[in-house]
């Protein structure tokens, strides 16, 4: 009899534990947010996991675009208890950046803290505040600002000429040209020398950095998912993609450390005006508003190399593909370049402001093939948008791919028409907050002007060289 009572007690305790566990999971992962009736519409979801299944797609931006076409351009999603707002409309995006830019000035969860690119040590995902402002200022002074650009203009002229000679040699040998690879080589060589001078060209560093950048480009969607889903999944012991991403990150950090060490060893050969000298001074705390660590320095370089390098090479490849597929655009672009530059010299970056059609071609390529297809932010405070309540801490995901193909905002959105960017000033102003290849607002990419220079000169040289 005592044995039976013991068994019954054990079963009762087991049932209580199981019930408590399921109750906890239900309350923690499936709880309804406040003001649920005021939230944006939501597609059907599964118990507990919510819309987790929607995040695992080979082309997440296209999957989200299809979701928006079925359920609407302003959606509320939930992964376990984590709330998301998905925006696929140009008009709603315009409204958010116009009225709530400060409120969405944070990129939200980092996900992989130790990752060199998009980790907590970097600039891109840093919370909006003094550190982020200092890092942006540091990047501007060392590489992207007006004085820094003037200081490094000679480097870009030399590298563009080298780029031309390489293309010309291949043409004479009747060798094929891999446009993305050539553009990547040009950008890496320029960026490296802008930051570190001739030292960067040693040990084949351009190729090494380009190779790891390509790995990170292939991991972009996994890094996005790790950032978005880290909070709920880590609570149940899952760290998605961490090993794969951190392996690439550790190798990137080792490579950059070796490059920096060699630069420091040759300090007497440097003129003190390289971007790296400014960054190292800040790292040592010399007259710096905010002391940064060695890891902060490497993260800044990695984000600069990856951001500018991948964006410029990918956009150049897409732009040339579109130009080649549209002979009339090719001819019009050639005529504009010949009329401004002539046929006796190479295009230079100082020519770019006089080439509006080339700029339009670049912008149209970026519109159709944006380098950053999904833009994550976080609402720091609860607010109302279009009559819907958005709770504090909600992750905002703007589908830039869908926004820049929104038929309500762009005529013939899937067609390559550079002319749409040749409108009057009012039309250009209207395009600003719905044209999102580099993000928008105060957290927009600070290197967009440099990318335009890289892309414009690369396309211009190829236009001049080949029929």
UniProtKB/TrEMBL annotation:
Keyword Methyltransferase: no
The keyword Transmembrane is annotated on this UniProt entry: yes
GO function terms (MF aspect): heme binding; iron ion binding; oxidoreductase activity, acting on paired donors, with incorporation or reduction of molecular oxygen, NAD(P)H as one donor, and incorporation of one atom of oxygen
The protein's required cofactors: heme
Gene Ontology cellular component terms for the protein in this record: membrane
Binding site for heme: 445
Keywords, comma-separated and alphabetical: Heme, Iron, Membrane, Metal-binding, Monooxygenase, Oxidoreductase, Transmembrane, Transmembrane helix
Places the protein is found: Membrane
InterPro entries according to UniProt: Cyt_P450, Cyt_P450_CS, Cyt_P450_E_grp-I, Cyt_P450_sf, Plant_metabolite_P450s
Transmembrane segments: 6-30
Membrane topology of the entry: Single-pass membrane protein
Similarity annotation: Belongs to the cytochrome P450 family.
Name of this protein: Cytochrome P450
Species of origin: Microthlaspi erraticum
């Amino acid at each position: 009899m005592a044995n039976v009572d013991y068994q019954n007690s054990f079963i009762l305790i087991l049932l209580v534990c199981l019930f408590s566990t399921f109750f906890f999971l239900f309350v923690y992962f499936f709880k309804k947010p406040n003001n649920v009736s005021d939230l944006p519409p939501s597609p059907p979801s599964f118990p507990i996991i919510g819309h987790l299944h929607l995040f695992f797609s080979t082309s997440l931006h296209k999957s989200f675009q299809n979701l928006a076409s079925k359920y609407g351009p302003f959606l509320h999603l939930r992964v376990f208890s984590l709330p998301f707002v998905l925006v696929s409309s140009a008009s709603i995006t315009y409204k958010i950046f116009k009225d709530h830019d400060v409120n969405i000035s944070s990129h939200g969860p980092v996900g992989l803290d130790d990752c060199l690119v998009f980790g907590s040590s970097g600039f891109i995902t840093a919370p909006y505040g003094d550190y982020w402002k200092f890092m942006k200022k540091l990047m501007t002074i060392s590489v992207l600002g007006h004085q820094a650009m003037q200081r490094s203009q000679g480097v870009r002229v030399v590298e563009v000429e080298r780029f031309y000679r390489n293309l010309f040699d291949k043409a004479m040998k009747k060798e094929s040209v891999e446009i993305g690879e050539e553009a990547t080589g040009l950008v890496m060589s320029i960026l490296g020398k802008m930051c570190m001078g001739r030292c960067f060209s040693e040990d084949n560093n351009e190729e090494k950095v380009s190779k790891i950048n390509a790995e990170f480009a292939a991991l972009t969607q996994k890094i996005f998912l790790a950032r978005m889903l880290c909070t709920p999944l880590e609570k149940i012991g899952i760290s998605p993609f961490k090993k794969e991403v951190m392996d690439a990150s550790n190798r990137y950090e080792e490579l950059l450390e070796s490059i920096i060490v060699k630069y420091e060893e040759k300090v007497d050969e440097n003129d003190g005006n390289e971007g790296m000298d400014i960054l190292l001074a800040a790292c040592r705390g010399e007259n710096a508003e905010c002391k940064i660590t060695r890891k902060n320095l490497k993260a800044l370089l990695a984000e600069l190399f990856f951001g500018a390098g991948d964006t410029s090479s990918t956009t150049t490849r897409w732009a040339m593909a579109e130009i080649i597929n549209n002979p009339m655009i090719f001819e019009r672009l050639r005529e504009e370049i010949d009329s401004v530059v002539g046929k006796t010299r190479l295009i230079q970056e100082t020519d770019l402001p006089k080439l509006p059609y080339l700029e339009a071609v670049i912008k149209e390529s970026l519109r159709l093939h944006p380098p950053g297809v999904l833009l994550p932010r976080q609402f720091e405070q609860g607010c109302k948008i279009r009559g819907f309540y958005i709770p504090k801490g909600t992750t905002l995901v703007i589908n830039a791919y869908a926004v820049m193909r929104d038929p309500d905002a762009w005529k013939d959105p899937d067609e390559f028409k550079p002319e749409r960017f040749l409108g009057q000033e009012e039309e250009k102003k209207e395009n600003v907050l719905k044209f999102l290849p580099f993000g928008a607002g105060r957290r927009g990419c600070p290197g967009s002007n440099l990318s335009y220079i890289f892309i414009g000169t690369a396309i211009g040289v190829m236009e001049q060289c080949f029929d």
